[in-house]
Amino acid sequence: MSNTPPASPAPVASEHIELKARNVSFSWEDTPLHWLPGDPFANHTINVLHLLLPAGERWFVHVYKQVLPYITDEQLREDVVGFIGQEAMHASAHDDVLPHLKRLGLDPTPYTAQIDWLFEKMLGDRTLPPGAPRKWWLMERVAMIAAIEHYTAFLGNWVLNAEELDRRGADPVMLDLLRWHGAEEVEHRSVAFDLFMHLDGGYRRRARTWATAFTALVFLWQRGSRYFMEHDPGLPPGSRASVGQFYRSGRKGTLPSTGAMLKSIPTYLARSYHPSQEGSTAQAVAYLASSPGANGGLHGGSQGGLQGGANGGAPA
């Protein structure tokens, strides 16, 4: 436990809504390997989500089930239970994409095995004495999840507003999966941070675990992009992923911009930070109400991402 007093973030109270897991359905038969035409690097950089998220979100659920007995705020407990349900559904939905990629000639198994090892072994439960040591490791992981959720909400807000994906003719089923998931990340963006503040809130722990999470995400994402580019049967041999490609795709709007990614660092590390200050619950809820995958799985075309606006208010 850190001795640093908790910061005093300013949540937007009107943004709070009841969280629930939604049963979703996505049919992948007609989705091509290059579901984003004309930009294989952005295509595969986004595809890394299918590699990281199933193991990562199952890890979230595992950690949070251990944390439930420590929660003394009933509303927060309800939010955490809703968060657990949504994260479990996210893991399952992204897991379903992997066999489809394999059928198209891109086998993700060697990479997903490494991801599973990371979350199950490196970040899994440890044989520690009961009491303070065991609780310390639990709080470290709670803080790390809060940092990761900052970026999942960032990505969710981005994909809801990424008009360039629509303009370039992104596959409607894949786009709906990404926007359904992104909308729920925006919807529950405050839960992980609120839980960390409730259980610990120490600024030194927040900064330390942010550095660990950010470094791990950058490392794993570039490895995943490189793996997909090198093993894509539709690309010339020797195809590579590079920082320059990320920068160019960000400028085109098919990935988050480098500037926005860098700006997200001081945002999270500000002592006044609270996740509700970013993104729009109203926009997220509006998309979820229209998502084909979350409403029967009937896809008649790409869903527009700009419902409600990036900075709209909370739902009535």
Mean pLDDT: 88
Per DSSP E runs of 2 or more residues, the count of β-strands stands at 0
Evaluate the radius of gyration.
19 Å
Unreliably modeled segments: 1-7, 298-316
Number of helices: 12
What's the shape? globular
Helix-strand makeup class: mainly alpha
Terminal-residue CA separation:
39 Å
The SSE string, one letter per element, is HHHHHHHHHHHH
Strand content: under 5%
Q: Tell me the quaternary state.
A: single chain
| Largest β sheet strand count, sense and barrel closure | none
Instruction: Give helix % range.
Output: 55-70%
Short description:
The chain is mostly helical and 316 residues long. It has 12 helices and no strands.
What would your notes on this structure say?
This protein is mainly α and 316 residues long. The protein contains twelve helices and no strands. α2 crosses α8 and α5 packs across α9 (203-231). The longest helix is centred in the middle third of the chain and has 29 residues, at 132-160. The model is unreliable at 1-7 and 298-316 (pLDDT under 50).
State the main characteristics.
single chain, 316 residues, mainly alpha, globular, disordered N terminus, disordered C terminus
Produce the secondary structure layout.
Blueprint: H1 40-67, H2 74-95, H3 97-103, H4 109-122, H5 132-160, H6 163-167, H7 172-187, H8 191-199, H9 203-231, H10 243-252, H11 258-269, H12 281-290
